[in-house]
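Hi Y.,

Following your request, here is the sequence exactly as I used it, all 128 residues.
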Amino acid sequence: RASPEVAALGLGYQVVVGGNTMTIGGTSASAPLFASLVSLLNEARLQQGKSPLGFLNPLIYEMGAAGRGFRDVTVGNNRKDRGGIPFREGFDCTQGWDAVTGFGTPNFQDMLKYVQDLPSGRRSEIIV
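Below is the corresponding structure, written out as tokens. Let me know if you'd prefer a different format.
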């Protein structure tokens, strides 16, 4: 997949590797962050006696279309490399979904409210 559904801050994560603390960033930091949020959402649903969320893409698009669960990022672009060197090509952040941040950064409290209100075993339409 070349473009994101969601975004998360990927800088300054402290990890312990071989007994040494180090700072990491990028997708290696932000992807586990998002996965941990999904784990907490599933735990909340299980505590309600409901099913876990399962395949997330339809839910992410449903929430994004409803303006729920994410903080829309509308300023910025992806026209710089990791060292800050500008690229000629790239995308701008815009209102709604964009190719830089997807639907935006997770708003956990809103996501939690949304998924707790879903019935157990709910199947969403398949988005192609």
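Helices lie at 27-47, 57-65, 108-116.

Thanks again,
Q.
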